Amino acid sequence: MILIATLWDDIWEVWSAGGLLMVPLFLLALMIYFYALQLLFFFRRADYNDIEESKWMHWIESPSESSGNIGAMIRYSQDGVNTVEDVQSRFDEVKAANIPPIETRIIFLSILVTVAPLMGLLGTVMGMLTTFKGLAMSSGQIIDVVAQGISEALITTQTGLIIAIPGYILVYMLNRRRQEMAAFIGRLESNSLQYFTIKLANS
């Protein structure tokens, strides 16, 4: 209990020394990690990395036996189609429904992550202005105001970087997962078109 109280006191001391920008930095961090975790859970629920290729190849030939997200794509791509062009059109719709929304959210997340160090830099400028203001005061107040300005400048910069660095790593990971998802849908489309071409040629 004492350890928690001490930790809380330390956090509050840092928060107070950081100045007014600590509030928007905190809100920005919440937004960044909310969006990042939401996207990570989305990719975690997607089953395209968990199912063997032989299994979804079988599903292409027998769509009624398919299940999950992959099964939904396969069934939609083959439901009521008569030509290879129809299958191609269905996969265009599948890609349009899945990839661009994810790209948009990752781009928005990237913007939020980029803002974090810039907001920290703004805190540096504000802290330096406070420092210069302190230097212009009478001797009795100089030390306190200068110390406050330096603390504000350093803490906001540090906080912005602490938020941004893991954020950049998350954006990189999410972009990799998006690329893997797009590549998987491309393979699914290619194999479906190949299967349908052979099927129509033999019919």
From TrEMBL:
The chain crosses the membrane at residues 20-43, 106-129, 149-171. Pfam families: MotA_ExbB (PF01618). The keyword Secreted does not apply. It is a multi-pass membrane protein. Belongs to the exbB/tolQ family. PANTHER family: BIOPOLYMER TRANSPORT PROTEIN EXBB, PROTEIN TOLQ. This is Protein TolQ. The gene is tolQ.
